[in-house]
Amino acid sequence: MRNLFIFIYRNYAFFFFLLLQSICIVLIVWNENYHQAAFQNLADEWVGRSYKAYNQVTEYLRLGDENSRLSKENARLRMLMPSSFYTDTSNVYSKTDSIHRQLYTYIPARVIETTTNRMKNYIMIDKGKNDGVAPRMAVISPDGIVGIVKNVSAHFATLYSVLHQEVTISGRVRQNGSRGTIRWDGGNPDYVILADITRMEKLRQGDTIYTSGVSRLFPDNVPIGTIDQFSLKPPGNFYDITVRLSTNFRRLDYVYVVNYMMHSESDSLMNRTLENDK
Q: Which of 170, 127, 171 is closest to 149 using CA atoms?
């Protein structure tokens, strides 16, 4: 404090000059309409810029809450899509009675850990058993497929990523084309392999590959990626197809856990069938 007083005392003439200048500016502004308007415009400009900067900062700080809200809203909207229902159609007295029943529900979640540099890659999300997540549920992102739930705790779950050598998913060329098998070859995390597509299928670079809905874990027609390159494998009956994934696993953030609501019923029926065949 003593040094501050000494500094002011040594430079009192400069500070006195600043004071007089400030008084002059105030008098000019208050007594001249032109200067008053110019000062008002300048003040408004600076206030506007300050508010804009403040809003940008606060909006950035609120991005987490806003993204979470949008994720929940998207999950709700996905449950209203036609692919989330199945139609029970029956003929009663020559009248078609169509009843739409819920087939899939969606649980929004956020990725908290992921790997892309291993042969068997995993993902951890911030939703678990308490949120309705269970093993063997599919997981998708706004861009495409992500993986399948492996283990769950009360508040977290780990997934087999699509970038896992033991994961295979049924894929379809376009929305009405042939079905094949999607798998990762352990190489570039941006690409997977589509196998079992015969030469009868007419392929084009850039064709979109979708889920086929065969396993019922993934809803039908969820994007997987696009054909990057293809060629016939010897002896020439099947294609060797490289698919560029639509999901960027390096930037994965918000995802949706897909609950196939008839999973237990279909599994129970299949288990009984297998037991009867023994």
A: 127
